[in-house]
């Protein structure tokens, strides 16, 4: 009886592997951009499952590129250093001192922690900021309030150009790029950029097969509050106008539309609180989140 139960479980595992086979074949050699954030970046068990997921993708011939955020960690260090974070319309006001803290947290701490975790579990990861190899050229963001006024929020930038040669070089040599969302301006100044938007511009520049956003919700909801498994650009724009898509979800959807317009085949917004969420989205027929398509 024990052998029968064990055999049934083993057969089920084998069936899961065979279900993944056509997806492995379809995505082999393709680039997937993954925006890493939320609980998946904070809980130890989810950090480990994330690292194992991206290593597995690389081992089966898929090229994961990771873009990470770090807003909560920036805020924590600012307060520890006696500097109170200020926001305008959800955007962090970033003076030169704050920019130093942002770079310290994103590039010096979080980026290296992610790289170290992947390498510890047998992968080959390399950390980059947008300043490395002129990867992300940026300009100052002209922030407008709902009333239409322009507000100076400091060294907050938007992507002007992505130069993906460094990423391509790493991919060709079997490495997993891990990118901190910091850009460089024409005069060499450093800019803090929304990580969701960086991921969209990067996916477009790489013509990635997929852009995947890890969040702390199941996906996108419609006007009636029901979960939407698929969303077209037209429907997304309608939900934005209606105010149904807003807050932290808005830059993720904007990022996805940018990627799609740049040639990315599909974008996904998935619940990173689920262990191995990336594998469940990519290698199963049903998926687990909202896919956004043109």
Any key phrases for this structure?
294 residues, Carbamate kinase, 24% strand, 43% helix, eight-stranded mixed sheet, 18 strands, globular, two-stranded antiparallel sheet, single chain
Spatial ordering of strands, largest sheet: 5-10-2-1-13-17-18-16
| Backbone CA Rg | 20 Å
Taken as a percent bin, the fraction of beta residues is 15-25%
Total count of helical runs of at least 4 residues: 9
CATH architecture: 3-Layer(aba) Sandwich
Which structural category fits the helices and strands?
A: alpha/beta
Q: What is the oligomeric state here? A: single chain
Total tally of structural domains = 1
Q: What is the CATH topology descriptor?
A: Carbamate kinase
Explain how this protein is built.
By secondary structure, this protein is of the alpha/beta class. The protein has a single domain (28-293), classed as Acetylglutamate kinase-like (Carbamate kinase, 3-Layer(aba) Sandwich), CATH 3.40.1160. 43% of the residues lie in helices and 24% in strands. The protein has helices spanning 2-27, 44-59, 71-80, 96-120, 165-172, 195-206, 233-241, 249-261, 277-282, and strands at 31-36, 63-68, 87-88, 91-92, 125-129, 136-140, 143-144, 150-151, 157-162, 176-180, 182-184, 190-192, 210-215, 220-221, 227-228, 230-232, 266-271, 290-293. The strands form 6 sheets. An 8-stranded mixed beta sheet has the order 5-10-2-1-13-17-18-16, with helices on both faces. Strand 14 (220-221) and strand 15 (227-228) form a beta hairpin. It is globular, with a radius of gyration of 20 Å. It starts with a helix and ends with a strand. The mean pLDDT is 91.
